[in-house]
Amino acid sequence: MTKVPRAAPKTDVILNFISDVFIWNEPTNFGPRRPIAYHGFALPLPEKALISGVRRRVQPKPAVPSGIGDDCAVLRIPENHEMLVTTDFSLEGIHFRRDWHPAESVGHRCLARGLSDIAAMGGNPVAAFLSLALPPKLSQRWLDRFFDGLLKLAAEFNVTLAGGDTSQSPTAVLADIVVVGSVPKGNAVLRSGARPGDRIYVSGALGGSAAALDLLYSKRRKTLNTGLYPSLFFPTPQVKLGKILRQQSLATSMIDTSDGFSTDLAHICEESGVGARVAESSVPRAKIGPAARLRLVDLRFALHGGEDYQLLFTASSRQTVPPKIAGVDITEIGVITKRRDILLTHANLSQSKLKPLGWEHFGKY
Length: 365
Hints:
Elements: E1 2-3, E2 12-16, H1 39-42, H2 47-57, E3 72-76, E4 81-91, H3 103-120, E5 124-134, H4 140-156, E6 160-168, E7 174-184, E8 199-203, H5 208-217, H6 230-233, H7 239-247, E9 253-256, H8 261-272, E10 275-279, E11 287-288, E12 295-296, H9 299-304, E13 311-315, E14 324-325, E15 328-337, E16 342-345, E17 351-353
Parallel strand pairs: 5-6, 10-16
Antiparallel strand pairs: 1-4, 2-3, 4-7, 5-7, 8-13, 8-15, 9-13, 10-15, 11-12, 14-15, 16-17
């Protein structure tokens, strides 16, 4: 879920930061009366010590003149730019499992989700805000490693962790990341810009994350070597690619493939009021496994898997889109059509409807 509010030129933007102590002792519609809980006491370290430790690891940057330590963070948005804001949950049992995902992976993936949204708008990420709800028995070592993963990725993309909040959860880790970025005024790449005749492109390869996850769910593997399955454990948000596509006016519409190619293409078609025709044989399928036994993932994972964090975009047929941009492979896979349906063309030239079968919260499975 991405919003693009406007920011005045040469104006510092104030965003909420650390809230006061949380107390919950009233009856609710969701269960019995709860005892009073000061959330700082439920953490592996008291809240003040936790925040101080994180603050020491965050390097100040000109775009964030005031971050952790005040009631609000102050962000500096460049003149003639607009602000991009995105937020994403990472919920234990839904987006990750502690017995499958190392803590560093959970922190990395938490921030990568937001960075990928900024990339899909052609924006430049500036700052992140993290709200964490932690179970009482979580070890301090797990939390330290979580921040290792998150802050390493933040440093790679020059993003400042500028604030957030902490609270207690009964049993699971809940993380909500807000990422703020900027884009030149009027230049954000939206989902609504695709037009009939535009070509459809995707970066990288698809299905690697879902295929790796399938190995775990099928119980063929209890754990996976994180180095062999980077798309699942340490995906790379395509921020540089997104900026180039925007700067060179190549992309008419764009989205990241976090929910699955079929679902994300449907989002573009819905917002643009168009349809699409996709060549099944052109869809770039990821290879997974050890180097000596690399194998292509099943087409179903490439079409519907999700969490690849590649960029799906359209470009005018008058534009020449290179096969590689910023070191990332770019593949043409179809065309935007006036007729508002999405068709998959098979090798024998027959066609079938490409239904959006990717991730959908509250969907029926």
